[in-house]
Amino acid sequence: LEEALRQAQKMEAVGQLTGGIAHDFNNVLTIVAGNLELLEMRLNDRPDVKRLASAASMATSRAERLTQQLLAFSRKQQLQPEPLDLNAVVIGIRDLLRKTVGERIEIDFRPGTALWQCLVDRNQVESMLLNLILNARDAMPDGGRIVIETANAQPKPSQVLGLPADLDSCVLLTVTDSGTGMPQEVLDRVFEPFFTTKPQGRGTGLGLSMIYGFVRQSGGHILIESTEGAGTRVLIYLPRAMVKIIPGAAAAHRQVSPGR
Ligand code: ADP
């Protein structure tokens, strides 16, 4: 618990710091990007110079993506949870995920049947999946297989280490890869903001800390199992969307409607 508290405090401090920097930096980038665009338009008769401006433009876009990521990381309070069918979410971005990992990696989706809806922010779930898939891809330089599974889960706190007692019914999402796995020293630090083992320019070290923040804020739980040389499995327990009790009205409760 102490460890979780320290982690949360660290996340908050880093979140505030990065949020401030990312915001100001993003404003500067917007000006740079806008001017580059104008410059490119005026250079149609100078293809050699235009190429230089385009290269600068592309680098600016990359920087903008990074600041967006940083902003998303620090902007934690703006979640918009809605009842979601996780299977539909995965199917909705399956093509994007496949394109992202390339041809040497197979993505196998095993949807759970009669899956409960879960109560989470759609954008965050999509970005979480994308981040998990990117990590799996990076762990499999020679190709391999990623299995995405969903299932209804009723974990017992005693069965799943560290799982809070209030999470007695939830939807479980697992992403398993056949990649390099991680040694214990890495596994111990994966949720730390800015912790990365990837070469400079490739990893930000924000993926898993962002996911951790989102899952915990949604009232869910995340576990990672990893074996060096064999692969990694990320288990994410998301809260089930179900009966809502309206305070004050004794017998008034309503079922969150299926579908959307
Ligand atoms: P980044 O991907 O930018 O490094 P993350 O927070 O997503 O940041 O991940 C932190 C580190 O955790 C990675 O650098 C990598 O060492 C390790 N890691 C995460 N996912 C996996 C995975 N599926 N297989 C092996 N190592 C992983």
TrEMBL record:
Residues 20-242 form the Histidine kinase domain. It comes from the Bacteria. This is histidine kinase. The lineage of its organism: Bacteria, Pseudomonadati, Pseudomonadota, Alphaproteobacteria, Rhodospirillales.
